[in-house]
Design brief:
The protein is mostly beta strands. The strands form two sheets. Strands 2, 4, 5, 6, 9, 10 and 11 form a seven-stranded mixed sheet that branches. It has a four-stranded antiparallel sheet with strand order 1-3-8-7, with no helix packed on it. Strand 7 and strand 8 form a beta hairpin.
């Protein structure tokens, strides 16, 4: 499976961006679709994920501002990011899993496939 994220860029505080991820290859193995981010000097952290049972998890820091959506039949998922803040600045990665357990959604190692990342920069 190969993942490719797009949609990153430079925006000002309060603006919006939408990230998109497209999967190709053995896509039938994908059940879980998510987004992580990693800021300089920090660990990679979960932003949002849609699990195979259609449950959705968000990081507390983005709840109410970000919305994840996905269409597994089309092999795509998006992250709508509103009211962006400078602390949202990071490289954003789309991730996919075959069977991510609900108790492990926060763990990067729970995911099987990763895209190369797209930079999001929010200026103050």
């Amino acid at each position: 499976v190969q993942l490719q994220a797009s949609g990153g860029g430079l925006v000002q505080t309060g603006e919006s961006l939408t990230l998109s991820c497209v999967a190709s290859g053995s896509i039938l193995s994908i059940n879980d679709m998510g987004w992580y981010r990693q800021a300089p000097g920090r660990e990679r952290e979960l932003v949002a994920v849609i699990l195979g049972d259609d449950s959705i998890n968000y990081s507390d820091s983005v709840k109410g501002r970000f919305t994840i959506s996905g269409d597994i039949a089309k092999n795509t998922w998006n992250l709508q990011m509103n009211s962006l803040k400078p602390e949202d600045t990071a490289v954003y990665y789309c991730a996919a899993g075959k069977a991510v357990a609900a108790l492990r959604v926060m763990l990067p190692r729970a995911y099987d496939f990763w895209g190369p990342g797209t930079q999001v920069t929010v200026s103050s």
